[in-house]
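Hey,

Quick one before I head out. I ran the complex with alpha-D-glucopyranose overnight. Inputs first:
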Amino acid sequence: MQRKIMKFKPNYLLLIVFMFLIQPLCSQSYSPAKENLEARKWFADAKFGLFIHWGVYSVLGDGEWVMQLQNISIPEYEKLPTFFNPVNYNAAEWVKMAKDAGMKYICITTRHHDGFSMFDTELTDYNIVKSSPYKKDILKELAVACEKEGIKLFFYYSLLDWHNDDYYPRGSTGNGIAGRKDGNWEKYIAFMKGQLTELLTNYGEIGGIWFDGDWDKKEADWHYDEIYQLIHRLQPQCLIGNNHHEAIKPGEDFQMFEKDLPGRSTQKFASKAEDIGSLPKEVCETINGSWGFNLQDRHHKSDKELIQYLIKAAGYGTNLLLNVGPMPNGKIQEEHVKSLEKIGDWLAVYGETIYGSEGGILAPSEDLVSTQKGKKLYVHLLNPKENWFLPGFNTKIENMTFFKSRAKVKYQFTDFGLLFSTPAREQDEIDTIIEITLK
Ligand code: GLC
């Protein structure tokens, strides 16, 4: 019998209707849920969070890249979990430390580039519960402590994996690590989806997912559409950020900057100025020079540098995610605990000029930045000196005072801007704040 061959005639009207119907499924049309928009607002107001880089690499005290830096083979590296036993880990202490520092959220590494999962996962035995003597899920404890203290919990999740064979074809890093085998990329994507589902199901409400490692394989198909949709379906308020150093991709909710204030371009991987968008922003920075615990990194930034970085970040309209790398025993090094205390002391007095603010109308410079809440403009003078001039400033002023003493500031408008002086008794080594109420 001869088969009838149906000739396919395109019905353009049907096609248009079909496209219209599937449009909501495409991420290009991502429209954030109401909860997500509220979460973005919360995030932009929060201004300050704690980044935690913690993994079995902390045992070696040489940062989180030690596996690739020292080319430690797979079987050698697999020994590390067997003596990772953080008996002094106390999630409540960490959360209290962050809260006292004035931080509003915590972002912790759940799985870094070494591929070791710091949580209970069904997708691999290479995890803290099954492969370490500690046997407990550190995320569970942290999630409980955060919930109790009203601190939001974000999860860092590495896209790059030096341990999983399915991370194949491999990327630009970790190629000197012996013992890696060939695998299947689609299986790797499924693995990530499985783990992300666990992370968004087993730990209560999650503030956000912080992706990293995209830069390892620029040409890869990461299936972001599916991954981002999965996250927003499981938890619509969950904010997605990705440290790809590029313009925002559809489905992302905030833009992140690594060790670089937006637009400063101080790093070779810095985002291009034209890629900076209007979503909430976050810059991450280390207290010394390392993310993961580094025993010999002595380049701890001074309290002044750290506080001024937080102020500058706010002046650039961005949050600061400040990092600690806990030690293998679960404690955070004393120098860093002390620095965080100092920042907390400062925020307890001046936090009003930071939290809930936006970058102010004055362009940031080395000498000053400004933050703003409606008609209240806070000028943060970062280098103490007596005479100041704000070129081009011609907005009418209702009131101008020193934030701390509430004394009036003497000022004068010229044809070219605003002149004012800060007498020595008002000057502050870290930040002299002038509060201007604009008319
Ligand atoms: C870089 C590093 C990574 C670190 C991250 C934090 O991407 O590869 O180790 O976790 O920066 O911003």
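The pocket of alpha-D-glucopyranose is lined by residues 53, 64-65, 212, 243, 258, 284, 291 (CB under 6 Å).

Talk tomorrow,
K.
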